[in-house]
Amino acid sequence: MAKKKKNKKRENIVEHNPAPQQQKSHNKSWKYTPLASLQKGLALLVIIGLSFLLYSKSLNFGYVLDDKLVYTENDFVTAGNGGLKNILLKESFTGYFGEEKNLVQGSRYRPLSLISYNLENQVFGTKGTQRNLDPNPDKKSTALTQGLDYIAPNATASHAINILLYALCGWCIFITMRRLLNRKSNDEEKWFLGIAFVTALIYIVHPLHVEAVANVKGRDEILSLLLSMATFHSALKYVDTNKAGWLLSGALLFFLGLLAKENTLTFLAIIPFGIMLFRKGAGKKNTLVFATLLIAAILYLVLRFQVIGFLLDKAPSTDIMNNSFAGMSGVEKYGTIFYTLVYYLKLNLIPYPLTHDYYPYHIPISTFGDWQVLFSIFLHLALLGCMFYFWKKNKLITFAIGYYFAAMSIVSNIVISLGTFMNERFAFAASLATCLLLAKGILWLKDKNQKVPAMILAGLILVAYCFITLNRVPVWESELALNSAAIKVSKNSARSNSFMATALFNEYKTTKDNATKLNLLQRAEPYAAKATEIHPTYYNGNLMKVGVAAELHKMNRQLDPLLNTFLEAGTIRPDIGFLKQYLEYINNREDKNKMLKFYADLANGLIDNHQRYDWAISYLQLAMEVDPNDPEIRRLIRKAYIGLGRPQDAENYR
After folding, report:
1. How many Å apart are CA 531 and CA 509, to the nearest integer?
2. 28: Cβ–Cβ under 8 A, 6 or more apart, which residues?
3. Which residues touch 122 (CB under 8 Å, ≥6 apart)?
4. Domain boundaries, the chain
5. What are phi and psi of 151, to 5 degrees?
6. pLDDT score of 592
7. How far apart are CA 87 and CA 101, in angstroms?
């Protein structure tokens, strides 16, 4: 009797896998019932309501950060129907730059989110509105972007659609996890206390997702996971019902998910892994599911290759702003990667403090001698051990850990270089594993007749996550708000300091009061200086440095601080166009001797320290406009021409 009682108890646990002969009768419980539809409908309403409650403030926000790359300044997106073809047939940033630029390894081909922006813009945007954009020195007018119409985006519509898609993503997680874990749709359980719904609730309130939802650009993350979960659900429906239509719909959804973002590829492993764990006797069907998804993946990769011309370029950027690992040794690279991996785990459980900027060197360069790296390796090996330990004892834990490793693989920088050390939105899909394990812990306490501790734990998690999310959402209101928050956390990031200077500078340009304008410039100046201190050759940092110095010069007419700043920046980045433009402006308006000394010092630095003879000549030509007979300037021009291997030109200045 005791043995029978024990077996009966085992049949009620979430991880139970019915024997093959029981599978048929079990599947009948998945047939449509009014109760099942009511439960799903109520879950959808709760999740949508919670999503809008948490993110309602973002409906009043504008566009920030990389929104201009994929939306507001992407000509293919804002051109209406005329841009749709180019979205499908060109790299995703081509509409912004005017040409294809492989700034990050593997480039970017994510047409689905851009198509959604385009269609959304046609419905909610304002047609015929003229552009009001800052000049973009990197943007080139080409045959691809000439003659396209412009529709001004509607930020409120963009944010509302993001929130709605996020809610649908949470609901899809609920119905997929419910089916995966063998929860019957017409049983007598309180579905709102089931592990699938608790998981979905924790996922919706998780603060790590704010970047993907409150930033319009994050729609690619949302669409990718939404379609991946829908694919998973279709695959499970096929396995449970044996209807081929679900198999085909799953392949289509998977292909669309890949068009949203490459992260969907990880579900090529996740879906068969889940079916293998929770569906005994479904080996042949699982193989067919995998084969179908593999065909969809191959079709996507062929399309991507046709558009971009390669799958992975062999030589990623050497600029650390587009490849944070540039110049690092192998030990430093992988040591830093393991540092970020343990940081991801920390943020999954304790998502505080948060920032949008993990660029060099907010994340420090690490080696295998650092304790954080060693701890990360130990922790990840322990997780792998737990995955195999619980393989038969608790399949949910095994699935969650396996899911996490698979989802993180493509965003870990181990497979490809992502352009930055890490990012919160990169964990958008992988964080589902944490939510699943937290829900499992809560319901484990409940099943142990520890209902009060279970309720307290659930309340603490949900309330804490809601509080952090509600406080994090307003950060995405504007560039100034976003960067003001980031600089408090990412103090050692060159990008964060540069962007903070830029935000203050942009505020300066729209301010009328002179005292306020001066204050904004004085606040921006140290941030620009810190950016170039961290990363001396950082173009944007040096640009902001000279830009702020020039505006201060206009206000106080002090030449020495201006020339000192120009000398520092010009020696490192003589290619800053504004630097030369402003020198042309003041060339015959300021002290002649100071200007000549500046040009001589700049040329000496370019020639002796950097062998930039071409740029030295370019600036020395400006000096010739001040005094064409100055002997030092003429000597330096001769020296530069000799360095270029042009002695005949050098003779002209003897």
Report:
1. 21
2. none
3. 80, 81, 151
4. 64-152, 479-651
5. -120, 120
6. 93
7. 15
Residues 139, 98: Cα–Cα separation, whole Å: 6
Any idea what DSSP says for residue 605?
I
151-152 and 126-127: which strand pairing?
antiparallel
Q: Are 113 and 156 in contact (CB under 8 A)?
A: no
Residue 54's Cβ-count burial label (10 Å; 0-12, 13-18, 19+) is: buried
CB distance 111 to 219 below 8 Å: no
The architecture (CATH level 2) of 479-651 comes to Alpha Horseshoe (1.25)
Q: Which two tokens stand for residue 150?
A: 């412009």
The encoded tokens of residue 582 equal 């402003």
Q: What is the DSSP string of 455-488?
A: HHHHHHHHHHHHHHHHHHGGGGG-HHHHHHHHHH
Phi, psi (degrees; rounded to nearest 5) at 152: -70, 125
Question: Distance (Å, rounded) from C-alpha 168 to C-alpha 52?
Answer: 12
**97/461 Cα distance (integer angstroms):** 43
Tell me the C-alpha distance between 501 and 497, whole Å.
6
List C-alpha distances in Å: 4 to 9, 176, 406.
Answer: 9, 31, 38
- Helix/strand/coil for 127: strand
Residue 653 is predicted with a pLDDT of: 85
Instruction: Characterize 77-88 residue by residue with b for buried, 16 or more Cβ atoms within 10 angstroms of its Cβ, and e for exposed.
Output: bbbbeebbebbb
* Residue 242 CB neighbours (<10 A): 13
Say what the pLDDT of residue 132 is.
Answer: 41
3-class secondary structure, 126 = strand
User: In the structure encoding, which two tokens stand for residue 226, read together?
Assistant: 């939404």
Beta bridge partners of 151: 127
Amino acid at 329: S
Q: Could you give the CA distance from residue 71 to residue 89 in angstroms, rounded to a whole number? A: 17
pLDDT means per 10 residues in the chain (654 residues)? Answer: 43 41 41 72 94 97 93 92 92 86 77 96 80 46 57 94 98 96 57 88 98 97 98 97 95 98 96 96 95 98 90 72 90 97 97 96 95 97 97 96 97 90 96 97 89 93 98 96 96 96 95 95 96 95 96 95 96 95 93 95 94 95 94 95 92 85
Q: Token pair for residue 606?
A: 């370019």
Predicted confidence at residue 243, as pLDDT, reads 95
User: Residue 337 and residue 431: Cα distance in Å, rounded?
Assistant: 18
Q: Are 325 and 417 in contact, with CB atoms under 8 Å apart? A: yes
Backbone angles phi, psi at 126, to 5 degrees: -105, 110
SS3 629: coil
Closest CA to 412 of 382, 378, 376, 383: 376
Q: Are 398 and 390 in contact (CB under 8 A)?
A: yes
